[in-house]
């Protein structure tokens, strides 16, 4: 039985990391996630266990980690928000790449769906 959780910014970052890593690698392991997010393996393990229990990830014991269909949808949404925000910050506001990356990572977790939609529409008109 899946135990749905209150999704935090940190857990969203883990889903996004698995999504990105899965596009780059044939298999995603705990060490890959910890390295990607620059966190300890125990921290990554706790997050993976939480996301697995909630039905967003599948984790073979001491093995590969993959997104469930629900996890993939959620992670793709987070990544889309991230890319949209970074693009806006760089191309419209002229923010530097490094700063835009850091700010987009923070902003992607707190902006409403309505604001993201309006931002997308705005950028489409440009």
Tell me the structural class.
Answer: mainly alpha
Anisotropy-based shape: elongated
Along the chain, the helix and strand elements come as HHHEEHHH
With helices defined by DSSP (H or I, 4 residues minimum), what is the helix count? Answer: 6
- Biggest β-sheet: count, sense, barrel? 2 strands, antiparallel
Number of strands: 2
CATH architectural group of the largest domain: Orthogonal Bundle
Question: Quick one: CATH class of the largest domain?
Answer: Mainly Alpha
What's the number of structural domains? 2
Low-confidence stretches: none
> What fold name stands as the CATH topology of the largest domain?
Arc Repressor Mutant, subunit A
Oligomeric state of the chains in view: single chain
Distance between the termini: 46 Å
The CATH homologous superfamily of the largest domain is called Winged helix-like DNA-binding domain superfamily/Winged helix DNA-binding domain
Q: Which whole number gives the mean pLDDT?
A: 93
Based on CA atoms alone, the radius of gyration comes out at 15 Å
Helix share bin: 55-70%
Task: Describe the secondary-structure layout.
Layout: H1 9-24, H2 30-37, H3 41-53, E1 57-59, E2 65-67, H4 69-92, H5 97-107, H6 113-125
Antiparallel strand pairs: 1-2
């Amino acid at each position: 039985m899946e135990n749905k959780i209150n999704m935090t910014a940190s857990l969203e970052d883990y889903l996004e990391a698995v999504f990105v890593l899965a596009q780059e690698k044939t298999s995603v392991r705990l060490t890959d996630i910890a390295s990607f997010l620059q966190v300890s393996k125990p921290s990554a393990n706790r997050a993976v266990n939480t996301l697995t229990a909630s039905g967003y990830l599948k984790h073979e014991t001491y093995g590969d980690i993959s997104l469930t269909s629900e996890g993939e949808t959620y992670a793709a949404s987070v990544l889309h928000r991230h890319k949209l925000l970074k693009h806006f910050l760089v191309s419209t506001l002229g923010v530097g790449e490094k700063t835009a990356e850091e700010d987009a990572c923070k902003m992607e977790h707190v902006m409403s769906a309505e604001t993201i939609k309006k931002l997308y529409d705005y950028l489409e008109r440009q």
